[in-house]
Design goal:
Length: 196
Amino acid sequence: MNEPAATALKKTNGFWTIVQMANLGFVIPAMGIPIAALVFAMLRGDLLPVNFVHVMTGALWTGIDLFMGIALGPALGGVDPAARAAIFKKLTPKLTFFMPVVAAVASTAGISLAMKMGILNFSDPRFIIALVIVAVLTVQGFGVLLPNEIRILRELLLDRPDVEKIGKLGMRNARLGGIQGLLQLAIIFVMAVLRF
């Protein structure tokens, strides 16, 4: 495809371009499997499948966030901006589709599990602490991380992307991912205490 045609495609159909950057073969299972697992678990009606979906998606969410903050962020801190931007160009489209789905499925399964177990108690301070942590995670995830990913993607779709800007936004997300991971460890502790 020649350059003007590629630019026209990016401007007229940015969403599809992002899907192509993420790879449709990745996007469909990355979004479909967690959602299908949640639907299956909810339809089954017993605790074990809902617990499994909650634990597995929570582990993915927490593990990826901790990896971003503890390993990837520091490793990329010493890399030149062009190389950093190249890494975020490959990583960001995938995370834009995968992370919100995994976070939403883990949260939905967790709330369903709490309701089924009868521990959804708004007068219990432990439950209130869990809700506050979830609120912070949600605001950070959907109010800061996701908008930064969209900014990175918009920059990548430009004819001359600003690699400095991409690198800075990507590093900000990597650091925030680490903070998210630590908050998720805190909520795991609170959930374990709520169960006993």
